[in-house]
Known about the structure:
By secondary structure, the chain is of the alpha+beta class. 32% of the residues lie in helices and 20% in strands. A nine-stranded mixed β-sheet has the order 1-15-14-2-6-7-3-4-5. Aspartic acid binds at residues 235-237, 255, 257-258, 267-269, 288-289, 291.
Amino acid sequence: MVTRREFVAGVALGTIAGPAVTSASAASNIDTHQSMRAAKLPIIVSAGNGFPYIEAGYRQLVEGADTLDATLSVVRGPEDDPGDDSVGLGGLPNEEGVVELDASCMHGPSRRAAAVGGVRNIRNVSRLAREVMLHTGHVMLVGEGAERFAVARGFKREDLLTEDSRKVWLLWKESHADWWGPGLADPSWKDRLRQRLHTSDASREYQRLQALAQDLGIAPDLQQAAIRKIVFPPTGTIHCSALSAKGEMSGCTTTSGLAWKLPGRCGDSPIIGAGCYTDQDVGSAGATGSGEENIKVAGAHSIIENMRKGMSPFDAGMETLKRIVRNYNGDMDRLKYVDMTYYILRKDGAYAGVSLWTGYEPGKPHSIAVCDGTVRLEKTVSLYEGVSQEWPPLVVPSTSTL
Ligand code: ASP
């Protein structure tokens, strides 16, 4: 049973003098503070996976760096990290085992934007998007053309599929799942996953996958997570928005997108106005989660327009989440498979992190990383309490706490 949160009171954040950075909360001790009023400038916010890198981005802002450069330095962390399988190197691949990356960026002061989609063999696609912005008359390059442009601009071609991601992909292939057939928004869509998992075969299937994971050499402590990734193809991304002391703003979003996707699938991350939007007069916002749903509500742009009309970052984000709910007429049997988090920064430094659900799975709440002199990781405020990808209470082996 889900319950809607009517309102979560915002708590003003403490500020500190000077550019020194203090750690207000560690990842294991996430706060639920949400700034509802002007914060200290400069300020930089990102998805939770930016937490280890956000302080360095903040320092760049303090030293007068361009706001887009500061965001790019934050998202480069997960892009270069082979252990982050949602972004850049080591991202989970498409159904053919090829990593395809998407990214977009907006530079507030010059009011420019650019994006790249379905890019193979190039790791730092957020920087590639900036190259498109700086060195072409276009806003978006995709696929092979984007890759050739990258090489022409000096980017290195490399295989982005790590051994760990390849093993999980091989396991997924054994699950005989695919992305063909009616999607979630199709009237004829059926919850086949739940039907399947409620059968007594579920435990046999789990054990079959576990044995396969073992044969593939997936470490025992990673097997459960790997099986989860094939049952619930994960999304994952990083967005970052920055506001300088001068009041300049930029944002960028970068991702390997939805795992096991059809080749050529682009999510919301490279769509200006969906996965990322910055308006120097209003604010900057970005998204992680179910890209298909976010594209349909032009999420980041809707948030900016809501704030332009006077809404707070929190209200602007919640109103946009409700548009997703409206697209499904509140059908919770479908919405439970939708995940969405918005990271929102207003021009005066007020910010919010809001989510449709508390997290993907129990014990792992969605979070927003923030640095305005104090570096911290805060839980987002969710419209619905619960997780979007809950293993149903079923006939699963007791070893599974998926
Ligand atoms: N929104 C991304 C996509 O759909 C994935 C994510 O953010 O998790 O490609």
